[in-house]
Write a structure and sequence with these properties.
By secondary structure, the chain is α+β, with helices and mostly antiparallel strands. Helix content is 37%, strand content 22%. The protein is built from five helices and five strands; from the N terminus they run αααααβββββ. The protein has helices at residues 3-11, 22-34, 38-42, 49-56, 61-72; strands at residues 86-91, 94-100, 105-109, 112-116, 121-125. The chain has a five-stranded antiparallel sheet with strand order 4-3-2-1-5, covered by helices on one side. It is globular.
Amino acid sequence: MDPKEFVTAIAAEPFAWGKNDCGSIADRWIALKAGRSPLETYGRRHTNREAALKWLSEPGGVAVAVNRVMRANGFRRTKNPQPGDLGLVIFDGRMCIAIHAGGIWFSRHEDGLIGAPLDNFWKAWAV
């Protein structure tokens, strides 16, 4: 499955914490490509809104959480992200983990789908 096919399938599913929030989508994508769940390996799978927000309220928020998970799973940063890579993107004043889907960075928040311009990434990792 390529990133566009994955994003199309995810976009058709309803939002659900622990399944279709930005971190869970990224985790599902990596599990599909790398054969393992980074969140499971790191020991921080969340299953509901409260658990996700508790983790994200820790010092450093999403930036520190994603950095730690990606580093612990051996993913290397890239300055030239390609389709299928993951990035921390800035969209509408918030940071989220997103999948490089070719023409956009794709992510999801409980408010809806996110399609951020490709130059809106702060950090990225090769998948």
